[in-house]
Amino acid sequence: MEDKLILYMHAGSGNHGCEAIVNSLCRMIKEKAVLVSYRGEEDNRYSLKNLCKIVQERSFDSNKPAHVLYYIYRKLTGDGESFIRYRYHEVFRGNPGPLAVSIGGDNYCYDSMLNDLRLANSAFCKKGIKTILLGCSIEPELLQKKQIIEDLSKYHTIVARETITYHALKEVFGKGKGKPVLYCCPDPAFTLEKKELPLPDGFARGNTVGINVSPMIQENESIPGITLENYREMIQFIIDHTDMQIALIPHVVWERNDDRKPVHELYETFKGTGRVVEIGDGTCEELKGFISRCRLFVGARTHATIAAYSSLVPTLVVGYSVKARGIAWDLFKEEEHYVIPVQSLKTAGDLTEGFRWLLDHEKEIREHLEAVMPSYREQAYFTGREVDRLWEEFSQPQKI
Question: How many CA atoms lie within 13 A of 41 on its CB side?
Fold first, then answer.
């Protein structure tokens, strides 16, 4: 492979948050990047096909003999990074380039991803490639683990997307001149473009509540079934006490983590009212087009709520981790009323109470977003400028 800017740790565009990060970053930077993807066919199907060169990871699932051989080799040598070199074979051939960007997002929020993140970062560094962790959220408690600190210290630059993560990183790495260089700026997806497809029947532009729910928050609920019970109660309140329509909008459509399943379950409950519309799958830009035409938004997926915030739509987040709290704090200087942790849902009316507050304060929230969003979006472009600067710096021929 020729000298190219590499984007990695991308799980695929069926998660439209992953798609939104890559889409918006690729539109910011000058260099046409190479995207190493776990699900390359998804990226070609949605919005990334013409924005970057998409390289499909090699999969052990489709090559059992290779899996066995690499497993034996790793056992004999202790070379865990060999798995990464196999998966990223194409970008490690020849001279892969001086810079690789880990598309951070919330990858460090999931235990199942921590080992691959560490091994990939180490493999690139041993190849002499500088690494950037971009747009990340990290639970502060995770930074108490020695192995995580050792991993993060290998990045040349870390860009946190909210201040809770940034301050936690500063506590660990201080203000010294050593690695990593730390920055804080908004998620690149705050700059995502939108595409406005025709609205379906029953979607009243400017008078519809957009609603997103995900299996992820259901997995983090403290009482089995409490999440959908709260959503049903809230939808019934909207139907009984307002004239607004309701649009159910998925944002991740992976087989094992598919928003369309709880979305459809809610639709089936209320379809007879004539007040509920079920939005199908689309690109991240198309889904933002629907979200942007809502009056209010209640969402679980981070990038569904980012699409709403950046479209000046008053938003209530049903969150489960630091990312929701951090973004809300940066926008509003408080978390209360703007984020309801799914773990805190104890009774069927908790989410409805949060929605009532959002409705009562709709005007002032929209005015606040109108005031802060232009500068907030402009700050998000820093990520692209920094990637461009580091690419230019490290791709220059070394002086002898």
Answer: 2
